[in-house]
Task: inverse folding
DNA sequence: CGACTATATTGACAATCGTCGATATAGTTT
DNA sequence: AAACTATATCGACGATTGTCAATATAGTCG
C-alpha cells in the first residue's frame, strides 16, 4: 500500500518512491465500465430531452410526439429510444400503429441512487 | 399544450391528433447539452478510476502513481487528467518534476447535486 | 554542460457514435 | 385488394473518441 502524501508535498529524490505499483483503484476496471455505461446513456442531450418529455406526460407518448419535441428526425428518435429501452430506463407499449413509451421510474430511481452514491465516494 | 394521454391509451383515428407539434421538452437543447456534458466526463471507466484513486489518497498523487492504477499508458492518463481538469473536477499542483492532482471536492459535490436533481425530475 | 526523469503534447490510427435518407414492417381504412 | 400511416431497421457517411508511440517540454543531478 502506498503511503498517503503529505498535504504540502515535498519533491522526492529522483526515481525515489516514484511510480509505486501498489497504487490501485478500489473500483475494478469491470465495475468502472458498468458505472461508465450508466453515465453514458444519460450523456446525450436528445436522450435527456426524451426522458423529460416522457416524464412530464405521465403515461404514454407516441414517437411522433417525441419527434416534435427534439431537434432530430424520426429514425434518430427511434435510435435513442432503443438505447434508453436497452438500458431499462423506458418501456414501450404498442397499440395499433402507435408505440407508447413511458419512463420506468423504479429503474431510473435506482440508477440515480447508484450514480449519486458513486459520486459521493469521490467528494 | 398537449393533452396528457390516458394511462390506458386508445388508438387515435388515423392522422388524428398525431404528431402534435406542441409537445416540447422543458429542457432547452442548450441546457440539455450542458447536462449531457456533465454526464459525459464521468462516462469513462478510466476517469472514474482516476477520480477514485485521487479521492482515496487525501491530498496529492503524481501521474506515475496514477498510471500504475489504471490499465492505460501514460499519455492516455495525461489525456484523461486533462479532461477532468477542464471540467473542473480535479486540480493540479506542480512541484519540481512532479504534478500532483487532487479532487476538487466542492465542484464534484455540486456536480453530483445537479445530476441527481436532474434525474429526480424524471423519476 | 550532458544525462536523466516526469509529464504534456502531437500525430496517427482504429473504433464508436450520431445522423439521416431510404426502405422494411406492421397495422388501418376504404 | 390498394392506399395510407406510424415506427423500426438498414446502410452510409462524417464527426468524435480513445489509445499509443514518438517527441517535446521542463525540471533535477552530477
Result:
Amino acid at each position: 500500500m502506498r503511503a498517503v502524501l503529505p498535504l504540502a508535498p515535498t519533491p522526492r529524490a529522483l526515481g525515489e518512491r516514484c511510480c509505486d505499483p501498489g497504487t490501485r483503484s478500489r473500483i475494478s476496471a469491470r465495475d468502472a465500465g458498468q458505472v461508465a455505461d450508466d453515465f453514458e446513456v444519460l450523456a446525450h442531450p436528445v436522450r435527456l430531452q426524451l426522458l423529460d418529455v416522457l416524464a412530464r406526460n405521465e403515461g404514454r407518448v407516441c414517437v411522433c410526439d417525441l419527434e416534435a419535441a427534439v431537434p432530430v428526425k424520426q429514425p434518430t428518435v427511434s435510435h435513442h429510444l432503443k438505447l434508453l429501452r436497452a438500458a431499462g430506463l423506458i418501456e414501450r407499449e404498442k397499440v395499433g400503429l402507435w408505440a407508447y413509451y413511458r419512463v420506468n421510474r423504479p429503474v431510473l430511481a435506482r440508477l440515480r441512487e447508484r450514480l449519486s452514491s458513486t459520486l459521493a465516494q469521490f467528494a
